[in-house]
Amino acid sequence: MAGTSPAMTTAAATSIFWGIMVETVRGPSLLLRIAELRAWLFLIVLVAFFEVWLRLAYGTSFVFSAYNIQAITVFAAVPLVLGLGQTFVIISSGIDLSLGFVMGLSSVIAAHMANWGAEIGMAMPIAALFGILSGVAIAVIPGLVNGWLIAFLDVPPFIGTLGMFGVSRGAAYLFAGGMTVAISNDWYSAIGNNRIAGAPVLVLLAAFACLVLHYVLSQTRFGQHTYAMGASKTAARRAGINVRALTLKIYTLSAVMGGFAGALYTGRFSAGAPQAGEALLLDSIAAVVIGGASLFGGSGTISGTIAGALVIAVIQYGLVLINVEPFWQFIAVGAVIIVSVLVDQTQRRLTGGRKVE
To answer: Is residue 294's pLDDT more than 90?
Structure first.
């Protein structure tokens, strides 16, 4: 450029460069990327915290211990499976409060059917499979009722699933006779306690469920319609999506995953328990929210739910290792949920309420 010295050109280029850098750091794009990955980033911070603490206090490792890793993944497996169905519900801007006792009902039915199968002469592997399938199948009923109430009678999800919470709870205790239902099937117990190539079977089954539902959510029309309905039911209807049928399918899927979680619980503890999922209901919702799903609907991922479930498991297991009273677990998980919701609200403001692709 005529009349412009090299020094002036260099200064101008430097000014433009730093201007871009400042805008990148201050602007919403970097913050949005961080917000999207918040669960994984927080998981890394948690693992680093417990690693440093254990090394300084006890001279042991947190993350480089195969025992700890297996314990954490097993601890997270059942709540994660429960959270997979909840992910679809929350993305669709709903909530499923019945999942905890749907899981308990399925746990009890799975135990009863596995025992009954053995009593009538089924081979133990067949009886175990029969119990698992029965536990999953019974969960379809509350799922269909939830979906029908919400989709066709316009009952708010909170009220409809809260009612089914009570119905499933009562049914679970009635079928269990008010107590746990022990199983004496080594094949079934092996599902919850054995390993394949060093990996717990329970974790492998949870991982398989994650892969299947990740594909369904990210690669199928059903998954895309779930996002669309969560973003705007009105827009989804105008786009030709059958919102009522979709709602029915989503709540049925959620209940089926609750049934699968109940069947896995029975294998892990060699007993069906009506209260099996009572404490895990909030963990399933927390895993989805911590993982980045918006309670307003329209956003969320299976990978985020995986991260959320691991965050909860690491908090609970790590606090036990450093000898903190277990009551602090509830405070820590609650604080993480609040922070996650605040981050989600900030993210929505930065994007004008739009879903981040």
So the answer is: no
